[in-house]
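Obj: model holo form, ligand = (R)-mevalonate.
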Amino acid sequence: MSQPTDSETRRSTPTGLRALTPEARRAAVGRAAGLSEEETGLLDGGEALPLAIADGMIENVVGRFQLPLGVATNFVVNGEPRLIPMAVEEPSVVAAASYMAKLAAADGGFQASSDPPVMRAQIQILGLSDPHGARHRLLAAKGDLMARADACDPVLVGLGGGARDIEVRLFEETPVGPMAVLHLLVDVRDAMGANTVNTMAEKLAPEVERIAGGRVRLRILSNLADRRLARARVEIAPERFTTDGFDGAEVVLGIVEACALALVDPYRAATHNKGIMNGIDPLVAATGNDWRAIEAGAHAFAARDGRYTSLTRWEIGAEGRLVGTIELPMALGLVGGATKTHPTARVALKLLAVASAQELAQVAACVGLAQNLAALRALASEGIQRGHMTLHARNIAITAGAEGAEIERVARDLIAGGEITTAAARALLAKV
Ligand code: MEV
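Output (holo structure tokens):
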């Protein structure tokens, strides 16, 4: 059978996945993404990560830990259809993202952009008698220090990356006296960049000590990757939110009001942003990227003005359209680490068909925005529990001991009965 070309791949979106078995879904997704039979097989992570590779990835390996891998559909980002691989344990995440992407697609999908992939390394300098003088000397040596950083990684420079700038921050009063921190900004191209900038920071440290006349302690990247932001925007007509029980314009107003609380109240902002990360983390995990780094960057960015707040904004635009925007750091790579060693991560990246780390960052921002919209839409209308518990019913059935065909049957009866609890599932199971 002939494989689709790259452009066909991006344009074909499998439909009706929900009704299929996991095997049939995998085949449909593989066909749509132009994956080979072997690559399609690797989406079944159960067999994909050989123990020998796992043993090389971390220490004291005793086995492999599996998560369900789903594919969110209907995403259109800058006019391109995208399939979104998501590794996650929480029911309703994949369905919710796909549902919101469908509403968005009817109005043109998501528009996204991202900064060049610039990471920041910090070099901490202590024991300074003249911190201001040290700052000026370091800034005067910028050209030489950047050239030294570039010399650490000629391959990166050959790919168009390398040192971009140097900044020096002063903290005149700290528990251990005045301190300067040199920031080395490096374009890391398609890497996440931690190893690249950490190596450069360690190499530069002796010269920085000499110029500053102090002593270097920390040499490490900052996960607040605020020079590597990704942005997404979506605009949806209010009637798209109209359902049997709810008027679309009222739902749109509810979404905007819900967001307003997250903007002013950290207690709500934490939950609101958790909902955003419900979309982003599964994509980050599926592509073998470092989700702790993404989490750290997102939350630090959310608190950048001194008060923790929402990472998204929802407004009412022209003709009552709901306008949503998100902006956050997105240090994702296509090369290095588990993105290359984990066979399923490699295929997940192929499924996404992104050409650069910047494009991957844009897709991640769109998924975060879609996931946030799903939560706010539900909260602003029927509430979160109905959909959530319906999708959770199968989990409850399994917890109660259902196996094979019993799972679907017990889940169906639980939903029909309206009491989705383990006790109810046990009672139903006993009858089955
Ligand atoms: C649950 O995992 C996420 C939500 O709590 C997010 C939100 O409240 O916005 C539904």
